[in-house]
Design goal:
Layout: E1 2-8, H1 13-24, H2 27-30, E2 33-40, H3 47-53, E3 57-60, H4 72-85, E4 91-94, H5 103-108, E5 113-117, H6 129-135, E6 140-147, E7 157-164, H7 171-195
Parallel strand pairs: 1-2, 1-4, 2-3, 4-5
Antiparallel strand pairs: 5-6, 6-7
Helix pairs in contact: 1-7, 6-7
Bound molecules: 5-O-phosphono-beta-D-ribofuranosylamine.
């Protein structure tokens, strides 16, 4: 059995898309794969409820609990790795996971760590991608699935989706249009990597 562990911080709609397509398109069955766990750094992450309802193990590792440690990022990542590794993951999927990861975390999951970013990388790494695309007058926007390296929002590009920017777009309307595409490309990449 191939194990997928998904990390979230918020609504988890990309995580839900992966779980849904794994079932409805039957690739989980075909590839003998399963979403083994959904882990969040925030107890209030809405996606945790969806995961529980679908019988998926969940865990919360609150990054704030490590604030007093001499090296809080390292301590948080070590705890996160320990939790992830109980599921023996073939793939660790970042889906709206809003933490910068340490080099040791990235090295530990080398070759099996991917992220989705709501821009056409290498344009607009970091936050507020849709507002920045609108400010620049971009005519197209989109999302990128990429391998994770120690440099934020870099790493080999595995898939991209492009959407038009419309004249009356706000950051929210553009984000919603991009998100519908994210839900299509992310599950596809997950299935492709597990099949390889
Ligand atoms: C998505 O736009 C994703 O590209 C970015 O954070 C957002 C997460 O949304 N990394 P969700 O939690 O999957 O709904």
């Amino acid at each position: 059995m191939k194990n997928i562990v998904i990390l979230i911080s918020g609504s988890g709609s990309n995580m839900a898309a992966i779980v849904r397509t794994a079932q409805t398109q039957q690739w989980a069955h075909r590839l003998n794969a399963q979403v083994s766990a959904v882990i969040s750094n925030k107890a209030e992450a809405a996606g945790l409820a969806f995961a529980k309802e679908h019988g998926i193990a969940t865990a919360v590792i609150d990054h704030k609990a490590f604030a007093g440690e001499p090296q809080p990022r390292e301590a948080f990542d070590a705890a996160l790795m320990a939790e992830i590794d109980t599921h023996q993951p073939d793939l660790v999927v970042l889906a709206g996971f809003m933490r910068i990861l340490t080099p040791s975390f990235v090295a530990h999951y080398a070759g099996r760590l991917i992220n989705i970013h709501p821009s056409l990388l290498p344009a607009f790494p970091g936050l507020n991608t849709h507002a920045r695309a609108l400010d620049m007058g971009c005519k197209f926007a989109g999302a990128t699935v990429h391998r994770v390296t120690t440099e934020l929002d870099h790493g080999d590009i595995l898939a991209q989706a492009v959407v038009p920017v419309l004249a009356d777009d706000t950051a929210d309307t553009l984000a919603a249009r991009v998100l519908t595409q994210e839900h299509l490309i992310y599950p596809k990449v997950v299935a492709q990597l597990l099949a390889a």
